[in-house]
Amino acid sequence: MKIKDILQDKGNKVITTVPETTLWETLTEIIENKVGSLVVLGESDQLLGIITERDVMRVIYQERDLKNETVGDHMTTEVSTGRPDDTIESVMDKMTQGRYRHVPVLENNELVGLVSIGDTVKAQLDYARDQVVLLREYIGGPVPN
Ligand code: AMP
User: Which residue segments constitute the domains of the chain, with CATH numbers given?
Assistant: First the structure.
């Protein structure tokens, strides 16, 4: 199973932002779009970084005013990315080792999607369920709902 299989299912939409955005606006975007991260793009749509709810939480913990802090000050700039042809297992390995839950997907340097740890878990579960159905059909047993 590959990243492109997940994107085929969930689509290519990625919520993005720019470095000048305040963390208050960022939090609003995260909540309103029900996502955990925003990908930060530059003027030519090049990938500059990623900012996640965890980065915002850190600033709240430091009791700083979210309206005076910007994405550029708190984003992670060394972003680990994936490609549509990467296997889901390899992306899960990356997330586990790097301790992050979001991986932007690039193709020819262009952002074509974002995969979260929840997407990878869902893909693995769907795959396991399909396998059970196939195997039960094969041995002639009842197929679970
Ligand atoms: P997350 O678990 O995705 O909320 O992210 C935890 C930390 O890792 C935050 O500081 C993020 O900015 C950072 N982070 C999230 N995704 C990535 C990624 N793909 N590459 C590098 N750092 C990331």
Answer: 3-140 (3.10.580.10)
